[in-house]
Each structure stands twice: as C-alpha cells, then as structure tokens.
Amino acid sequence: MKRRELIRHLERFGCTLLREGARHSRYVNLADPSRSATVPRHTEIADLLARRICRQLGSRIKMNQDLRRKLDRITDILWAGGVTNPVTYIEPISYLIYLKLLDEEEAERELRARLTGGKGNGNGRLLFPKQAERYRWSKWRFKSGTDLRDFLRNEVFPYMASLVKEEPQIAEYFRDAVLEITDPNVLKQVVDELDGLDFRKLGTDVKGDIFEYLLTHLGQSALNGQFRTPARFGP
Question: Where does 81-165 have alpha helices with state H?
C-alpha cells in the first residue's frame, strides 16, 4: 500500500509523528504514549507490515455491526466473482466508499446553500458544479455492465484526479488510481451494497475504521496461503 495512505490512517486514529530517523519515521499514539512504531520511508509499504504497525500503535476496530456485515457481504461478492486477493480489492473499495462520502458531503453543501441562500460550501464552490454533476455517485450509481465500469475508469477517476487546484487532497487521493474490480457484474453488486449505506450516520472516523477492518483480510489470506504481494498496486 502507499505510505501516504497509512500515514493518513494513523493520524485519523490519533497518532502523530514523534521524530524522523535516517530511514524511518517514528509515530506515537497520543492517547497511549507507550505505544509507538516505526514507519519506513519507502513509497510502498508491505500490507502485512502496515497491519503490524497499526497493531503496535494500539489500533482497535470499533465498527458499527451493520457496517461490518455489509463489508463482509461485499467481500463475499468479490470472492464469489473470483476476486480473492485482498490486495486487488481493498483499494478499489476505498475509492468507491470515498466517492459515496463525497456525494453525501455535496448533498450537505447543497442543503446549506438552500438554507442560507448562498452557493456551495463556505468559499462558494461546489465539488461537482453543474457541468460535472454526472460524476457524482448519485448520478451514475444506476449504471450497469461495462457502461458502469468504463464510466468509473475512464471518466470519474480522471475527473477526481484533475481537481488539483480546487480540491488538492481529493486529487492526490485519486492520483494514478486504478479500478481493479474489472468484472462489471461484480462491480455493480459492490456499488449496490455501498449505496445502501449512509456514512453520515456512522461517525466521522468511519473511513479509518473501514480501512483497518479491511486490513484484517490481508492477515487472514496470508494464513490461508492466498496472499502474495505484487510489485506494485494502487494509487
């Protein structure tokens, strides 16, 4: 996985940089300073190592049970569709969840604009202006087949990565993003499952919880002899 993704997760969990070393960065859990871990400075960090770092820092999975069941259902769909390597599906699920979260955030911005008589968020800008509305989750979630897959791969992902000036954090998240779920039927089932979730009701830390929970699949697949690390994956 990308180092920047791991760092974002650690910071959401309440960990902070303690000091920089020659080859590693040491992070500490502010809630429990006795817990610390070193994070290599490599751009890519092995997934099992990332999971061990989270464990050393005292990460615990605190997740809504409905959400846990939904994620289990999604991984079952992926396995049934032949997508059995967690390396292949963890990041695409993260991208899809992020797109759903952004759509929910946009709905809140629109509501605030209607209530205040303004436009967009605090700086008067919507994430999906009129000419880009088609990239919103709520606009394309009804697509299916290769139409859905190709639209996400060739239009939605590139649009999100293009927001360098408007939303640099989002652009960075989708930079070089690849949709690894290539089976259109499997992809449609995953989108339908995620569409049934309202992330706004699940708390502000839900994305970090999801990320940590999905990492447990890496450990389990390794025990089953099914995990192997490719040379490179993800954004």
Answer: 86-116, 137-140, 145-151, 157-161
Domains of the chain: 3-56 (3.30.920), 89-204 (1.20.1260.30)
Q: Who contacts 128 (Cβ-Cβ below 8 Å, separation ≥6)?
A: 106, 135, 136
144 burial (CB, 10 Å; 0-12 / 13-18 / 19+) is middle
Decide if 96 contacts 191 (C-beta within 8 A): yes
26: which 2 tokens? 């040491």
Three-class SS state of 18: strand
- What are the tens digits of pLDDT across the range 162-199? 999 888 989 998 988 989 899 999 999 999 999 988 87
Phi, psi of 104, deg, nearest 5: -65, -40
Contacts of 203 (CB under 8 A, 6+ apart): 64, 209
| Cα distance between residue 166 and residue 106, in whole Å | 14
The pLDDT of residue 131: 84
Residue 66 Cα distances to 70, 73, 186, angstroms = 6, 10, 21
